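Form P-L/3: holo structure prediction, ligand FE2/S2 (inorganic) cluster.
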Amino acid sequence: MKELFVAAENEIADGGRKVVATGGVEIGVFRSDGNYYAWRNECPHQGGPVCQGVMTRKVEERLDGERKSSGIHYAADGHRNIVCPWHGYEFDMKTGRHVGHAATRLRGYQVKVRDGAVYVVLPA
Ligand code: FES
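OUTPUT (holo model):
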């Protein structure tokens, strides 16, 4: 395994991201609630630069006990999604899954934090 240096920990603010490139591949590293998530910057739809899209709070519809909608709300946990800038496909930042079609997902990488620096683990 090879590790790619991404940034010093304090370089990526919570809610922020950094896109790095290596060997013709771009990888977006996101920080949310102190955790890091890394995804290939290539949308599974048509290859758009998904990691450079808007980050938006997850939206959910709340239902009452009779399954009647009480409207659309932002998720209370502050969870965020990434929106591909080309056609608007929306992916869960933590899982990489498309919000409406779980089989459509981003390609992920393991992230390591060591001695104040963030690395992405590249496949051999
Ligand atoms: S390429 Fe990402 S939504 Fe189409």
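COMMENT: The domain at 2-122 is CATH 2.102.10.10 (Rieske Iron-sulfur Protein).
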